[in-house]
Amino acid sequence: AAKERGKGRYAVYDAELEQHHALDAQLGAELRQALDAGGFSLVYQPIVHAPDGEWASLETLVRWHHPERGTIPPDTFIRIAERTGLIVPLGDWIMRTACRQAADWLDRFGDAAPPAVAVNVSARQLREPGFAVDVAQALHAAGLAPDRLTVEVTETAVFEGGSTLDTLHALADLGVGIALDDFGTGHSSLGLLRTCPAQTLKLDKSFVDSICGGSQESVIAAALIQITDGLHLDAVAEGVETAEQAAALRRLGYRYLQGYLFARPMTPDLVEARLHAGHRQAA
Ligand code: C2E
Ligand code: MG
Ligand code: MG
Ligand code: MG
């Protein structure tokens, strides 16, 4: 009987797995169509100065508007885009659009414009030969100064080694900022801080979630500030949702904060409404 049940379980498992793969393949094909059909858009979430809430930069986050399924979150489709290689042309579109957007805001709003944008870049893009040249071209085409752009990469992507570190050094040589995203969740190695030309660490949301009350996470978050201060790196805490978390992070010495407490990711229209209202500040 146990064997029967076991067999049954595998059958169910196989069916689910197959469905999953079928959906992936379908989504992969639909991603490709969406890229040609203008099915993606970008939203922007402020990274704010901890003391006054002023926008230090805006992180670019991609959205996929699926004709039947509605808006699909990047956590679902980036993975598929990476596997199918579509992340390369999609990522190129994201980079060019974000650079143009940042340059446009600087033209129109001057000193009141967001000072910089951050763009997430996946491991697959970093491995692509000529990636740094493509970024230089995107900046040039947009007329955006390199120091107005930061690329966000995960520790795991950097850890993969190979040409990735060379690419990051080439980007840093251009004057583009490098941020280590989701710090503390991947193949965290402090050795990475010696070899990777990052100026910024982004403490992952999972630490911020339990930052209050002397937790293990708060001890690690505090130790990271010692390291970033000592190495003259910037520390950003991501996913800040409550005033208590913000207060705890400020006390620890985090100079930059990001999260729903300050602002959700915003469409360009909403960003501009904020800029017109004369405050680059979080609500
Ligand atoms: P990430 O780069 O770590 O981005 C932070 C994610 O947390 C975003 O989700 C953001 O909307 C969300 N977030 C920000 N503040 C809060 C908060 O206070 N509470 C909660 N619950 N969530 C918050 P999103 O936009 O769904 O993106 C998820 C991930 O997908 C990103 O994580 C990034 O790894 C990836 N991604 C997004 N856009 C791009 C892109 O253009 N290119 C690539 N390669 N990856 C992207
Ligand atoms: Mg990010
Ligand atoms: Mg992040
Ligand atoms: Mg994260």
From TrEMBL:
Residues 24-279 form the EAL domain. This is Diguanylate cyclase/phosphodiesterase. It comes from Spirilliplanes yamanashiensis. The chain holds residues 495 to 777 of 777 of the full protein.
